[in-house]
Specification:
The chain is built from 3 helices and 4 strands; from the N terminus they run βαβββαα. It has 131 residues and is α+β, with helices and mostly antiparallel strands.
Length: 131
Amino acid sequence: MCKPILYYDGMCVLCNKSIRFIVNRDPKKRFKIAQQQSVKHNTNYESIVLFFDGKKYMHSTAVIKSLILLGGIYRISAILFIFPKTLRDFTYNLVAKNRYKWFGKHKTCPTLPESWKDRFVDAENLPNDLL
């Protein structure tokens, strides 16, 4: 089974805190991460992107699926799938469009802890159609 890869907006304070939340609760080091700014081809800074098992997940589905993959008590977030995707994504997009205003924006992509080095995906080797 391939490892899930999370692509996130490295400038976004909320996105960085979310990535830290995932990585700090992932002792098996299943998740790989990449800042979307490091990817040279098509990116969507309005959404976190989860690539797992040959599939791409975006918006609210990426968040919920990531929590499920985290395991443990976080699997209970699967209950959020009872809400229609349109409603989930409406809420997600509302937060995404206002995230810099509500949570702030870094002037440059922050450097993540050196201990996470093995978590980073080499953006040079990504398939062109990934994001």
